[in-house]
Amino acid sequence: MKVRSNLYRKESYYGYLFVLAPVVGYLLFTMYPLLYSLYGSFTDWDGLGQMTFIGLDNFKDILADELFYKASFNTIFMMIGIPIEITLALLLAMGLNRKMFGTTTFRVIYYVPVISSLAAVSILWQWAYNGDYGLVNQFLALFGFEGPNWLTDKYTVKPALILMMIWKNIGYSMLLYLAALQSVPKDYYEAAQLDGANSWNIFWNITFPMVKPVTFFIVVTKIIGGAQIFTEVNIMTPTGGPEYSSATVVFYVWKKAFENLQMGYASGMAMLLGLFIFVITLVQFRMNERSSKDME
Amino acid sequence: MKKSLLATMAATIVLGGAIAGCSSNSQTEGSTEAGQGGTKQISFMFRGGPEEQKAYEATVKKFEADHPGVKVKIITTTGDQYATKLKAAITGKSVPDVFYFDPGDLRAYVNAGVLKDITEYVKDVDFDNLWKRGVDIYRYDGNNVGQGSIYGLPKDVGPFALGYNKDMFTAAGIPLPDKEKPYTWDEFIKVNQQLVKDTNGDGKIDQYGTGFNVNWALQAFVWSNGADWLDATNTKVTIDDPKFAEALQYFADMQNVHKITPSIEDAATLDTYQRWMKGELAFFPVGPWDLATYETLPFDYDLIPYPAGSTGKSATFLGSLGIGVSSSSKNPEEAAQLVTYLTASPEGMQQLVDAKVQIPNLIDMAEKWAADTTTKPENKAEFLRIVEDYGKPMPNTLTYNSEWYQLFFTDIQPVLDGKVTAADYVKAEQPKMQKLLDKAIEQEAKSKK
């Protein structure tokens, strides 16, 4: 049996106090709104007045809603940016992990967009994509291409948004990879070189597996974040783009809740999105566990 | 020891409760705090561009000076964040005492008990000297808008007039448009075609006739052709009317057939707005909120009526934004005083008009303002004609929500690109829009219970 001293008690008492603050915050600002929204999703509620319980009617309507599918498709489509971003971030990190002139400057350059306000960045890119005066088309014109009006064409609006998001976020993933690369023991590389491994072998058998936990972390958080894209879309294409081609699920939820007085319906969509994120994340964790076992 | 642990935990929970209390009940923070020396505090939430915010903040200062004992707490947001913030405040039951609201939300807010009936507080207002159309959209008797109690007063009315670049006409040697008699649609195309030019001889067109944004300018063409989005009862979507299709086709043909506007993709407002400001467009809409900005235009411009379709009469929309009082306000009288000061008092109005962010709400002041032809545009009287005579409210403000109306513009791009005819479009779109409108009507009925 443990002997409990007064000192120990006192410490635990402060411990509880410190633990309590975030727990109360979580219950109040996360759990309560979540449950409220869950209840809201079963009601006919305009966000202003009475909530009338209607069971699963909202979900029936959502599953028959063309625009909901369109927005879901757009959201998933825009996740194409994630593998591109991760690959580029890893390559960049490996490049900047060498001893060469100017690496610090480059690290800063790539990280600046990450800490910039997303709203400001969106407005900046909105200008860059302008069909007439935009930087992007002026750049293309140097090579004799005539660029489209990126944000008002349903075929270019999604790639345009993806490109911008990669630019905005790549510094974050790069920095994580950089930290991971620096913690790979140097002896591994030396040993491999002595054994005559080429650089591909070294990358595939040492670097890649060693940074795998970081890759896993980035993939999971990116997909969660990707499912919730809103600000960029809302600022750059405030009407959801031509024929709703850039509207995401969160954008559609926001439209319904705050513009069309259908808070109950919007809550229902938010619940479905939450469920989607939960399931995807669960699957990823399972897959990660399995592949970790394979490696052993 | 154990006791004090419990005590601390209890204290923390109480503290947490207090935080919760703040978040759900903060309307008290704005309105009931009696403050020092018996001053009453009211909160005022509004939106606008930097110029407008400055003008309104200064006017509120003056209100405080004229009403000792009332302090106004200002909450501002940019235009695009306003609706979200206000609706979040309503859901969280912390509605500001005085706030802007969209006329389209009037019924929802009244039915949900958010807006206060201020009829008895505004008895002293001289309604004969206020734009009737501006005031009537804030009257509601529980069934119809336009009659009954007053739930707000117009911040302003926004007549969306048509402007033209005078210098461009003079340079091309084309007689200036008649400010009394609108162009017919054919005449409008012809005069535009004369103005599409390659001015510097590099083989590329750099001066265009016009470039309208479909969201804001299509109404002028539809209405002047005798068609509309809704029937008289606001319960039926009427876009499948051939006259509607004709107007929409005319609008799309300006780009695709007559080539009087910048290329298809460039129709977004930003581009044409910039082109107009650079003097590359002959015709462009002008709202009163643009006047301060347009003072610096490098050319002379003036206002004319919109080209008229088969009715022979011009049409355009008359926008407005209301200022109302929260039904939960603890100081409704002071709140209503602020509303009337901002909307109907000569002192408040003069200050806002001088800041060039709106046309006067007071008819006598507006007439004096319009008669002054020394400031641009010369024909300001056109603004007043829209307000008094031919301006109409936007269709989306006539229904409980505007989802049905938004769908029309969401799907419209193929028509503007010339890939789908207007006739086919309206036929395919009408049932979808009707379904959403039916839903809105159903929703409204439920909200009255």
Outline the fold blueprint.
The complex is a heterodimer of chains A (296) and B (449).
Chain A: H1 6-40, E1 43-45, E2 51-53, H2 57-63, H3 66-77, H4 81-96, H5 103-115, H6 118-128, H7 135-142, H8 157-182, H9 186-194, H10 199-210, H11 212-226, H12 231-236, H13 249-259, H14 263-295
Helix pairs in contact in A: 1-14, 2-14, 3-13, 4-8, 5-8, 11-14, 13-14
Chain B: H1 2-25, H2 27-31, E1 40-47, H3 50-66, E2 70-77, H4 79-91, E3 98-101, H5 106-111, H6 132-136, E4 139-140, E5 149-150, E6 153-159, E7 161-165, H7 166-172, H8 185-195, H9 214-224, H10 242-256, H11 269-277, E8 283-286, H12 291-294, E9 301-304, E10 316-325, H13 332-344, H14 346-354, H15 363-371, H16 381-390, E11 391-392, H17 403-410, H18 413-416, H19 422-448
Parallel strand pairs in B: 1-2, 1-3, 10-11
Antiparallel strand pairs in B: 3-10, 4-5, 6-10, 7-8, 7-9
Helix pairs in contact in B: 9-10, 10-19, 13-14, 17-19
**Count of DSSP E strands of chain B?**
11
Mean pLDDT of chain A: 89
Instruction: Indicate the proportion of strand residues of chain B.
Output: 5-15%
Which percent range fits the helix content of chain B? Answer: 40-55%
Distance between the termini of chain A: 38 Å
Rounded to an integer in angstroms, the radius of gyration calculated over CA atoms of chain B is 25 Å
Percent strand of chain A: under 5%
Distance between the termini of chain B: 55 Å
Instruction: Supply the number of helical segments of chain B.
Output: 19
Q: Helices and strands of chain A, in N-to-C order?
A: HEEHHHHHHHHHHHHH
- Rg calculated over all Cα atoms of chain A: 24 Å
Based on the structure, what is the oligomeric state of the protein chains?
heterodimer
Topology pattern of chain B, helix = H, strand = E: HHEHEHEHHEEEEHHHHHEHEEHHHHEHHH
Shape of chain A: globular
The two chains with the largest interface, and their residue counts, are:
A-B, 43 and 47 residues
Provide the structure class of chain A.
Answer: mainly alpha
Task: Indicate the overall shape of chain B.
Answer: globular
Return the average pLDDT of chain B rounded to an integer: 87
Adjacency order of strands in the biggest sheet of chain A: 1-2
For the secondary structure, the number of strands of chain A is 2
Summed up, the helix count of chain A is: 14
